[in-house]
Amino acid sequence: MALALAQPAGDRRSVTILGATGSIGQSTLDLIGAAPERYDVVALTGHRNVERLAAAARRHGARLAVIGDPAGYAALKDALGGSEIEVAAGPTGLIEAAERSADWVMSAIVGAAGLEPTLAAVRRGAMIALATKESLICAGALLLDEVRASGAVLLPVDSEHNAIFQAMHGERRDSIERLFLTASGGPFRELSLAEMAKVTPSQAVAHPNWTMGAKISVDSATMMNKGLELIEAHHLFGLPAEQIAILVHPESIVHSLVAFRDGSVLAQLGLPDMRIPIAYTLGWPDRIPAPTPRLDLAAIGRLHFQHPDAARFPALRLARAALARGDAAPTVLNAANEVAVNAFLADRIGFLEIVAVVEATLERCECGKPEGLPHILAVDAEARRIAGMLTGADRAVAAGGH
Ligand code: NDP
Description:
Layout: E1 13-18, H1 23-34, E2 39-46, H2 50-60, E3 64-67, H3 73-79, E4 86-89, H4 90-99, E5 104-107, H5 115-123, E6 127-130, H6 133-150, E7 153-156, H7 159-167, E8 176-183, H8 193-196, H9 201-204, H10 214-222, H11 224-237, E9 244-248, E10 254-260, E11 265-269, H12 275-283, H13 297-300, H14 315-325, H15 329-345, H16 351-364, H17 373-390
Parallel strand pairs: 1-2, 1-5, 2-3, 3-4, 5-6, 6-7, 8-9
Antiparallel strand pairs: 8-10, 10-11
C-alpha cells in the first residue's frame, strides 16, 4: 500500500490549505475554526475568489495567502492591507505555499492544476490530505514514487477512499479480496438516455446528497467521478481494477466497503458530510471531534444497493479501459474530461457529449508511457488541445481553470 505509516501528532498542528476557497477548503476551515487552539494556519490559496480568500486568511490568522490567478494579486494585497499576512500569486505562489513548512497540507485544488503544488508538498515529506483526485489520475505513478522517496504521508479525503482507508486499518493487503466503492448514482440515476440528453448544467450541479464544487458535481452526474475514483483506489491501495467493484447506493450512508478473504466485510458509515472524512485526516492518527450531525440509522430505515447501469453511464467503462490500457491513458482521460465538463458548464456541449468527447480524445491521443513530469504535462496539454477542438472552444482550455 502506498499510504505511509503514522507520524505522531503533536498537540498543535501547522496546516496549509491548497484550494481554501472551495467546498473542501471551506469544510476544512470550518473544522479548524471549531478548535483554533489546535492549529497554526501557515498558507491558504484560492484561484479567483479574492474576497473569500482574504476573509479566511484574516479569520484564521494565516501567514501567507496566495491567489492562483495573477490578475487577483492587487485586489488581494488591497484586501489584506494593514495585516501582517504575506501575499503571493500565480503558479509559483501556489508552489511556495505548498513548500512552506506545515505539518499537514490539504490538497483541494480542483483538476490537474493541483498536481504541481501537491508534488511540492510531497517532496518536502509533509502529511498530505489528498482531495484532488485529478492529481492522482493525471500522474499516479509519479506522485506515489515521490511519496515513497520523501516519506510523505498520503491520507485519502475522498469519502470512499477514506472509508476504505479506515476499514483497512491494521489489515494486510493480501487478506483483501475486493473493494466496493459506493456511488450515489448522481442526480440522473433514474433518467433514460433520451432524458439525459436534455439536462442542463444547473440540474447537473444539484447533487441529491452532497454539496460540492461544480466540476465534481458534474462528474458525479456522468459517473465519471466513480471512474476516476476507481483509478484513484487502484493507486492508493495497490489493487488491480478487477478487485475493485462499484456499487450504487443512493442514500450515500455506506461510504465504501472492504471484503476480506475470510468472508468478512467492513464498511464505514456516516452522513454525507465531507467534514467527517476531512476530520479523520486532520486529526490522524488520532480522532478529533467533528461538529457534524450524527447518523440515525433507525430514522433512515432502509439502505439500497444495486449494480451500476453500464449502458447509461459509459464513463465507468471508459475509466476501466483507460486503466487497463495504462501508460498515459488516465492522464488523457482526466484532461479531456476537465475540458468537456467546462464546455458543458459553459453550455457549449450537451450532457451526453461529455463522455463522448473523452472517448474521442482517448482514440486520437498518443498515450505512450509517461517519462517524468514534463512528459505528463505535455500529454495533458495535448489531450486538452484535442478535447478543446472537439468541444468547439477556439483555444485550448487552461489546466484546471474555470
Ligand atoms: P471547488 O470548485 O469548490 O473548489 C476548487 C478550489 O480550487 C477553489 O479553491 C478554487 O479557487 C481552486 N482552483 C480552481 N482552479 C484553480 C487553478 N487553476 N489553480 C489554483 N486553484 C484553483 O471544488 P471542491 O472543493 O468541490 O473539490 C476540490 C477537489 O476535491 C476536487 O479535485 C474534487 O474532485 C475533490 N473532492 C471534492 C469533494 C467534495 O465534496 N467537494 C469530495 C471528494 C473529492 P477559487 O474558488 O478561488 O476560484
